[in-house]
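Quick illustration, no need to memorize.
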Amino acid sequence: MDSQFSLNDRVAIVTGALGLLGRQHCHALAAAGASVVAADLDEDGCEEFAEDLAAEEGVASMGFRVDITDPATLLHARDYVLDQFGHIDILVNNAAINDSVEQHEGDADLTRFELFPLESWKRSLDVNVTGTFLCCQIFGTPMAEQGSGSIINVASTYAIVAPDQSLYVRPDGTRLMFKTPAYPTTKGAVLSLTRYLAAYWGKAGVRVNALSPGGVYNSQEPFFVEQYSARTPLKRMAHDDEYKGAVVFLASDASSYMTGANLVVDGGWTIW
C-alpha cells in the first residue's frame, strides 16, 4: 500500500499555497515524496514557505508568484517548472475567494443577496471559476501531452448544499453576515468543470477530481464554532491538517481508477 500512496519523482503545483489549507496541501504532497511548487500572489512569501517546506520535508520545492486570473503569469510558471523538472504531474486548484466568517469585515447588509455588489460577484467568478479554468488549461495540457496526471479541484460543501444562513446570527439576534451567493455558485461551477475535464481528458490519462472540504476551525467567533459544530454529525469543525490524507489519495495511484468524482470530507455535514 505504501507504494500506491507514494508521490516520489512527481511534481505538484498548489495554488493558493499560502492559505490555511494550501500550506497543509503542500506539506502533505511533500511528505509523500513530491516536489512541490507553492504558487500564490506573494512572491517573497512563496519563496520563504518553499524553503521551509524543503527543509522540513526533505524534497525539492520552489515558490512562485502567480495570479490565477492572468494567463501570462501562469504560462511563465508552467514554462519555468517544465524547464526545472521536465514534467508536471499534480495540480491542486486551491486558490479562491471565500467570504468567510474569520475574514468578514463591514456591513452585514452588503452580504445580503438583494444588495450584493455586482463587482464582488464578478470578482468571485473571475478567481474561482475562470482562475480554475486557466490553471487546468495551462498546467493540465502538459499532463495530457505526457499521458498522465492528477488534477484536484477544491470545491466545498456549499457546492452541494445551500448555505445555512442561521449559522451567522449571534446569540443576541444580530447578524455577522450572510454567506453570499458568489461562493456556492462558483464552487458549483468547479464541480461541473471537474466532470467536464474528467470526460475530456480521460483518454489522455489525466484524472480530474474534486475535493469538497467542510468548515475548518480558524479562530472564528465562538458562537459560530458552536453553531457549526452542533449542525455537524461529528460535532466539531475540521482541523486544518485533516484534509492531507484526502489530497495524497487523490494525487496518488491509490485513486488510479477514480476520475470525475467529488470526495466529500465534511464531518457528515451534507448528510442532513
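The helical segments are 2-5, 20-31, 43-57, 71-85, 118-146, 182-201, 222-230, 244-251.
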